[in-house]
Every structure is written in structure tokens, then in C-alpha cells.
């Protein structure tokens, strides 16, 4: 197992620049493109931050086809996200409101209640944007549309996580439940 100082030294020897046009995009969405949400969710993504040695900021290139959204409507309790729209048009769901997006727009989604967010490609061409975010852990996320809560220990994006758990708020247990 490498130490933090070894990882930092390796990161600093990487080229600190990447061209987005040459980044390797990988499919992201429901497994095998099937099951619940397959027609609604999906994107191509490239994690740029790790590729250039970023340690405290994440940066991901996202490409969404018309009618799709990359992730469910959600909010973070720890991490903040910023979107930089590169090409295309779409809609940002933010809290109870919807906001049109077009190339050149920049949107911030701070952590905490009332900041649930989701980008939807409502245009007729691919929507390309950057997500720039803090990369702090642990993270707790809420999914208002489905009533789920997610808990993640570790650094977001650095899989496998020591802990990753999703459940519904309605499944809540008393603090002392099951304790002997």
C-alpha cells in the first residue's frame, strides 16, 4: 500500500494539463443500459481531475444526449459543485425551480438542504459541460424524488469506497435498534 506522500509525489510528476477533446469518455448510467431509468439516465464522462493530479478538486467532463440526465435529482451535505456549460442547451433543476442552460453559463450548487440539483438535456444536440467540485469525504447525499439517502466514506470518485450505502428515509431505525 502506498503512502500519502508517495501518492502526492506521483501526482506531481504527472503532466498538469489535459485536453478535453482528447479525454477518454466512458459510459455512465444504469448497468447494461437496462432496467429502471435506462431511458431516462445516461451520460459519457471523463474524470479530468485525477488525470492531471488534482488533489482537492474534482473536474469531470460530462456529455449527455438529448432527453437524458446523468444522475438522479440529489443534494450533497458535504461537497459543492459548479457546472460550466460548454456546448448545447438544457435545464438545471435547482431546489423547486428550473433554470435554462446554454453554452457559457456557470451554475453553483452549494451543499445543504434546499440545494437539490439535476441537469437535463432538453435540447436537440449533445449537452457538454464540466463539473468542478470539492472532493471531501465522508459524504451524505439525499435523493428527493426517490426518498433515498446515500452515505459514502472515502474520497468521492475514488472507488472502491470503504463504505457506500443507499437506503430509503422511510427505512430509518431508532439509534438503539438492535443493540444488545
Strand content: 35-45%
Order of helices and strands: HEEHEEEEEEEEEEE
Task: Give the termini distance in whole angstroms.
Answer: 36 Å
Number of strand elements = 13
Tell me the CATH superfamily of the domain at 19-136. Jelly Rolls
Main beta sheet strand tally, sense and closure:
6 strands, antiparallel
Cα Rg: 18 Å
Enumerate how many helices there are, as a single number. Answer: 2
Shape: globular
CATH architecture of the domain at 19-136: Sandwich
Strand neighbour order, sheet with most strands: 1-2-3-10-5-8
Q: What name does the CATH topology of the domain at 19-136 carry?
A: Jelly Rolls
Low-confidence stretches: none
The CATH class of the domain at 19-136, by name, is Mainly Beta
Proportion of residues in helical segments: under 10%
The average pLDDT score comes to 91
List the helices and strands and how they pair.
Blueprint: H1 4-13, E1 26-28, E2 43-47, H2 48-51, E3 57-64, E4 75-76, E5 81-87, E6 89-94, E7 97-102, E8 106-109, E9 117-120, E10 127-134, E11 139-143, E12 148-153, E13 163-168
Antiparallel strand pairs: 1-2, 2-3, 3-10, 4-11, 5-8, 5-10, 6-7, 6-9, 11-12, 12-13
